[in-house]
Write a structure and sequence with these properties.
Radius of gyration: 35 Å
Number of strands: 10
Membrane topology: Multi-pass membrane protein
Subcellular location: Cell membrane
CATH architecture of the largest domain: Up-down Bundle
Shape: elongated
Strand content: 5-15%
CATH topology of the largest domain: ABC transporter transmembrane region fold
Bound molecules: adenosine-5'-triphosphate
Structural class: alpha/beta
Largest sheet: 6 strands, mixed
Main location: membrane
Organism: Psychrobacillus soli
Strand order of the largest sheet: 6-7-8-3-9-10
Number of domains: 3
Keywords: ATP-binding, Cell membrane, Membrane, Nucleotide-binding, Transmembrane, Transmembrane helix, Transport
Helix content: 55-70%
CATH class of the largest domain: Mainly Alpha
């Protein structure tokens, strides 16, 4: 039977069996803590000295916090109870100094700790972002983008919160706990035992609650990641959602995911909300016990009033850190889990260039495929690209044709080295591709895609993205050559118009002209073009064709061709089918052959 009842109609989400499994798993995984903590320690780096200073300050403030009640006991027993006032001012002065120092040490430790935490989080965040830039495309293929964003934001935020506040609190709680126990034992072992009676109750209450909350918090993080993923997808793909009238279905799916987050959030917060209440109750019980036992002992003369006051104060100081530890437990757990997930991404192997030669190599643009085979998924029976061989001379244009899914885009992706080939090799100017640094290859290769991606920045910056050090003149010349200059001037702020995310306010054709300008600025040796299939008005279409011809002139170009005209003009035609290159050569040769290309042409299916 599920043990969580169903108030407000919420379904139970964690069963007893789940908890048993999870608890076992957690015990087995305890060693991960050390790994995560030692990696965080490395990130603290040059602020380690400051962190040690913070720890020393925490020790000082814990000691001062113990000393205060001791002085109050003396004031009561030696002065107030005996009505002696000589010297009272001195001891009260000392008490004030103790509390002033206590405040100063506490202020300093939290001030320094925030600095350390912010620096560490900055490093963690930058490290993760840097690492993401170096990960291969295949890594992103396998993951939902929203989930990755959740790690960049939620997980890092959890670690940040823990470092900002929980770290000091946990350390100071442990110290206070030990210090108070020692002082209480010195004062009265009997009263100490009475104070400690409450501890097992606290321990079991805590264990009961945290076993449930840690599982629930994990569920909540997962549900949040999924929901973020969906939001990200629907926002970036909102045109598709609208075009296919999928709003209702998306709303339903969103409602399911949102409901899941609500349920997990409800239970996680309900259970964790029990912690302070239960602890408060046990605290009060402990306080009552200590006061009652102290009263009886004082009645028989075993203890002074001052000692009872000190003791009740220490008893409170003893249970407060227990409370704090209980409260911080979940935060720390979820921060460590968050840090672990962040480190897991940082451990993903990045793209590494084997050789450092050819750093400044200027590509001529000769491209050779030698028996190239490639699998997206190693478990697939058939390769996506199978034994493909061809040679394209520098400056030539090769048109790739074939049915959808034939492997045309994959050939382009392999040319940009987004993926590594599994068999055979790709040679650029006779140099095996893996011997060329990726930067050398990619900085001299440009993509012009069907649906070009534009960033939320000015038109000028979007064009300059092709070559960051391009001058304003170079940008404008490229825009003129790309037939984009005229429409840019008509935009509200010309070249300084800020485009909204992905160029929402300009037409598809204009986006393409901008992406051609971007490629022109980059002045690449190799061009990878995916011809647009969407119908664009004839005037813009002509402008695009003209701009593309200028762009392709003198460069090796691979075009996924959808227009007969483009194919006709190409020097070479590659006919792809099921990942194989079934025909290749100049148009006349293929027509004479009367093979697949001839059939495609006569059936006008390209
Ligand atoms: N990232 C990926 N992960 C796994 N499989 C993929 C991936 N991208 C493409 N594929 C698969 O590889 C095969 C070839 O796809 P590719 O995109 O190269 O075809 P294409 O000829 O360009 O098709 P289209 O003309 O429709 O764009 C298809 O079966 C496709 O499902």
């Amino acid at each position: 039977m599920n043990f969580i009842r169903k108030p407000f109609g919420y379904e139970p989400i964690v069963t007893k069996e789940d908890l048993k499994k999870d608890y076992k798993k957690k015990v087995e995984k305890a060693s991960d803590w050390k790994g995560v903590l030692s990696r965080l320690w490395k990130l603290v780096d040059e602020k380690r000295f400051l962190l040690i200073m913070v720890l020393l300050l925490v020790i000082a403030s814990s000691a001062l916090a113990l000393f205060g009640p001791y002085l109050i006991g003396i004031i009561i027993d030696k002065y107030i109870a005996k009505s002696v006032f000589a010297g009272l001012a001195n001891i009260i002065g000392l008490l004030i100094i103790v509390y002033v120092f206590l405040s100063v040490t506490m202020y300093l430790q939290s001030y320094w700790m925030i600095g350390i935490a912010q620096q560490t989080i900055y490093r963690l965040r930058t490290g993760l972002f840097n690492h993401l830039q170096k990960l291969p495309v295949s890594f992103f293929d396998k993951r939902q983008h929203g989930e990755l964003m959740s790690r960049m934001t939620n997980d890092i935020e959890n670690v940040s919160q823990t470092l900002n506040s929980s770290f000091i609190q946990v350390f100071s709680s442990v110290l206070t706990l030990v210090g108070t126990t020692v002082v209480m034992l010195l004062l009265s072992p009997l009263m100490t035992v009475i104070t400690l009676i409450i501890v097992p109750f606290m321990f079991f209450a805590m264990r009961w609650i945290t076993r449930r909350t840690s599982k629930l918090f994990k569920e909540q993080q997962k549900a949040l990641g999924e929901l973020n993923g969906m939001i990200e997808e629907t926002v970036s793909g909102q045109r598709i959602v609208k075009a296919f009238s999928q709003e209702t279905r998306m709303l339903e799916e969103f409602a399911v995911k949102s409901e899941r987050l609500k349920r997990t959030g409800f239970w996680a917060l309900t259970y964790s909300g029990f912690i302070p209440k239960v602890m408060n109750f046990l605290n009060n019980m402990s306080f009552t016990l200590v006061a009652a036992a102290g009263g009886i002992l004082a009645f028989y003369g075993h203890i002074s009033i001052g000692e009872i006051v000190i003791f009740t104060e220490y008893a409170r100081q003893f249970t407060r850190p227990l409370n704090d530890l209980a409260n911080q437990f979940n935060t720390v757990l979820s921060a460590i889990a968050g840090a672990e997930r962040v480190f897991a991404i940082m451990d993903e192997p990045e793209e590494i260039d084997a050789a450092n030669d050819h750093q400044d190599y200027k590509l001529k643009g000769n491209v050779t495929f030698e028996d190239v085979s490639f699998w997206y998924n190693k478990n697939d029976d058939n390769p996506t690209i199978e034994d493909v061989s061809f040679h394209v001379e520098a400056g030539q244009t090769a048109a790739l044709v074939g049915a959808t899914g034939a492997g045309k885009t994959t050939i382009m992706q392999l040319l940009a080295r987004f993926y590594e080939v599994n068999g055979g090799s790709i040679l650029i100017d006779g140099i095996p591709m893996e011997k060329l640094p990726r930067h050398t290859l990619r900085s001299q290769t440009a993509f012009v895609l069907q649906d070009p991606f534009l960033f939320e920045m000015t038109v000028r910056e979007n064009i300059r993205y092709g070559k960051l050090n391009a001058t304003d003149e170079e940008v404008m010349t490229a825009a003129k050559e790309a037939n984009a200059h005229e429409f840019i001037l008509k935009l509200p702020n010309g070249y300084d118009t800020i485009l909204t995310a992905d160029g929402g306010e300009i037409s598809q054709g204009q986006k393409q002209l901008l992406s051609i300008a971007r490629a022109l600025v980059a002045d690449p040796a190799i061009l990878l073009l995916d011809e647009a299939t969407s119908s664009i008005d004839t005037v813009t279409e002509l402008k695009i064709q003209e701009a593309l011809e200028r762009l392709m002139k003198g460069r090796t170009s691979f075009v996924i061709a959808h227009r007969l005209n483009t194919v006709r003009k190409a020097d070479l035609i590659f006919v792809m089918e099921n990942g194989k290159l079934i025909e290749s050569g100049p148009q006349e040769e293929l027509l004479q052959k009367r093979g697949r290309y001839y059939n495609m042409l006569t059936n006008t299916k390209i």
